[in-house]
Design goal:
The complex is a heterodimer of chains A (about 240) and B (about 220). By secondary structure, chain A is mostly beta strands. Chain A has two helices and 16 strands. Chain A starts with a helix and ends in an 8-residue tail after the last strand. Chain B is built from two helices and 15 strands. Chain B is globular and about 55 Å long. Classes of the chains: A mainly beta (about 240), B mainly beta (about 220).
Chain lengths: ~240, ~220
């Protein structure tokens, strides 16, 4: 094959794989690029979905079939990326509000991320036909207890950093984790995403990744002025004992 | 056979008994010692009873009161293994209290050839791998606290366990009452555990006396 053509083909391929363009870091600030991935447990038989290998939901009631719904690690949503470090300060992209809808299919998120601000709001939308009694309490005693009539919304606030498990009187199986980030440097992504933090104050930073139902992953990074650091973070049950 | 004098027989018997006891001691490993019930008669045991009150609506989910003994737990009988099924991609039971040292057997009792996985996060962190229909895995709990159970294959397959240090625990009934019988005398901290956390957990110092019932009022506040 013509070497020039090979080079051209490789250049086009590389350009196509280049991914998202990011601005250059400011001279006195650092950047962090967290590449999220999720991997299924090794050794599971059969592909996802109906495959005739025993996982087929044909002939099952919708409720029973729902129980056998498998985790799609290629499209795992609601992965929180939290930065922890004494020099970080405010100015991060953590959400100041969030929304959770609860319907007959369950909640639309398994993990909700909020920034650590006094007036951060969580809107709870009840799309069921009964009034929902929703509550939680975190380690510091912060929490809420509210009733949301059918078809309506309730707004609650959480300000103390920590992890809260939302509970519901009408649906004992409802599992939603509410994460109030320790700093404003926090963002949500899904597997395959790149989560980008710009304008980070240089220093030692712990990057903590929290995904629904999976062990946390933590990476320590030295954020250097004028440099973009890349962090590869895979959430998985595999080699769980090694994850921190 | 000539009869030995009493002043020789008795010291010899005592020496033989002591030698046997010394030889036996290394053989009695920790597990065997644990299985030996505490040398306390029923008359010497006390009990704890009381009522929990709530400052707001109580969730319809388990609330446990449990005792932590000052100076460490007494060695007690290990509870028989708890069986947890996985049929229908549901942990059955979905919640249970486990006593420290107790084994839990997770059975893949599916009708069809469906693989399951059990991994746990919380007080204990362990992945038990994938196992097929008919297989089971066993885990011995060695740490007190809440343990969340998951299957990495099925996204709604979640369960929860709470590991207590001894059998001195009780579920709080719908009317708020609870009762713990057969408690060895001593000083304890009574603690609460809520599967659905809605109130501040309570810790109360209590003393249990032989043959007496200790009354406790537990106020669950937000």
């Amino acid at each position: 094959m013509n070497p020039k053509l090979t080079l051209l083909a490789l250049s086009v391929f590389a350009a196509g794989c280049g991914g998202k363009e990011y601005p250059q870091p400011k001279p006195d600030r650092a950047q962090l690029l967290v590449k999220l991935a999720a991997r299924a447990k090794e050794g599971v038989k059969g592909p996802k979905g109906d495959s005739g290998d025993g996982y087929s939901s044909a002939g099952m009631s919708p409720e029973r079939a729902k129980c056998y719904e498998r985790v799609d690690y290629d499209d795992l949503e609601d992965i929180a990326v939290l930065l922890k470090g004494s020099s970080l300060g405010d100015g991060g992209p953590a959400p100041t509000s969030a929304r959770l809808t609860i319907s007959n299919d369950g909640p639309d998120h398994r993990l909700v991320l909020l920034g650590p601000k006094k007036h951060t709001q969580l809107t709870l939308r009840n799309s069921m036909k009964v009034t929902l009694t929703l509550g939680c309490m975190g380690p510091s005693g912060d929490g809420f207890l509210t009733s949301v009539p059918p078809g309506q919304e309730g707004v609650v606030t959480l300000s103390d950093p920590g992890i809260y498990e939302l509970n519901c009187d009408e649906d004992e199986c409802l599992h939603v984790t509410l994460v109030v980030a320790p700093t404003t440097w926090a963002a949500l992504g899904k597997s395959g995403d790149e989560v980008f933090f710009d304008g980070v104050v240089p220093g030692e930073i712990d990057v903590v990744i929290q995904a629904p139902r999976l062990p946390d992953v933590s990476r320590r990074v030295s954020a250097t002025a004028g440099i973009r650091a890349t962090v590869d973070a895979e959430v998985s049950v595999n080699r769980m004992e090694e994850s921190k | 056979m000539p009869r030995l004098p009493r002043h020789i027989v008795w010291p010899a018997a005592a020496l033989l008994t002591a030698a046997l006891a010394l030889a036996w001691k290394p053989l009695a490993n920790a597990a065997e010692r644990r299985e030996r019930p505490p040398a306390i008669s029923i008359a010497e045991l006390g009990s704890v009873a009381g009522r929990a009150t709530f400052s707001a609506a109580r969730p319809k989910q388990p609330l446990i009161v449990w005792l932590e003994r000052e100076g460490g737990e007494l060695k007690g009988k290990i509870e028989p293994p708890l069986q947890i099924g996985q049929k229908g991609a549901v942990f059955t039971p979905p919640f249970a209290v486990v006593v420290l040292g107790q084994k839990v057997v997770f059975n893949n009792d599916e009708d069809k050839e469906i693989d399951h996985n059990v991994y746990m996060l919380g007080a204990e962190k362990k992945d038990h791998g994938i196992f097929a229909k008919g297989a089971s895995v066993t885990h011995t709990f060695e740490t007190t606290g809440e343990v969340s159970l998951y299957c990495s294959v099925h996204k709604l397959m979640d369960g929860k366990l709470f590991v207590v240090p001894s059998t001195a625990y009780a579920f709080v009934s719908d009317d708020g009452s609870f009762s713990i019988a057969g408690v060895a005398p001593g000083n304890y901290t009574l603690k609460t555990y809520q599967k659905a956390k809605r109130f501040r957990d309570v810790e109360l110092k209590i003393a249990v006396k032989a043959g007496e019932m200790t009354s406790v009022a537990v106020e669950m506040k937000r």
